[in-house]
């Protein structure tokens, strides 16, 4: 299966000058675990729940004064729409990421999460093994 059939196409994004507080409100409103940070339509970072926990809450930073640009992950691992599902899963596993923005050219085309993959692969044993390993990556 190609990843474009599985990816979410309406990705919730934000600008890097947004506050961590605004990011949390947006994540809660949409019941999602990450936001993609854009600058002129190009991916410049990703902000996950883990980023917020480690870089705001644990450090006791004021979320209304902390900008997304200060806490987002800048080195974003991305996939391509024509990737096979197993290939995307392997990429996530190797890079220890649970969210994979999908780009076409320089533009954000979608997003695939470990949860999306788990839902779609209940019959593919090879992919399931990769997902299991990825979901347990904190133990590796």
Structure explained in plain terms:
Helix 4 packs parallel to helix 6. This protein has one domain: CBS-domain, CATH 3.10.580.10. Strand 2 and strand 3 form a beta hairpin. It is built from six helices and five strands, in the order E-H-E-E-H-H-H-E-E-H-H. The model has no long low-confidence stretch (mean pLDDT 89). Helices cover 38% and strands 21% of the residues. It is of the alpha+beta class and 140 residues long. It has a three-stranded mixed sheet. The chain has a two-stranded antiparallel ribbon with strand order 4-5.
Layout of helices and strands:
Layout: E1 13-15, H1 20-30, E2 34-39, E3 42-48, H2 49-57, H3 68-71, H4 85-95, E4 99-104, E5 107-113, H5 114-120, H6 125-135
Parallel strand pairs: 1-2
Antiparallel strand pairs: 2-3, 4-5
Helix pairs in contact: 4-6
CATH topology: CBS-domain
* Residues in helices, as a percent range: 25-40%
Quickly give the structural class: alpha+beta
Question: How can the largest sheet be summarized?
Answer: 3 strands, mixed
The total beta strand count reads 5
What percent of residues are in strands? 15-25%
Mean pLDDT equals 89
The structural domain count equals 1
Q: Rg to the nearest angstrom?
A: 15 Å
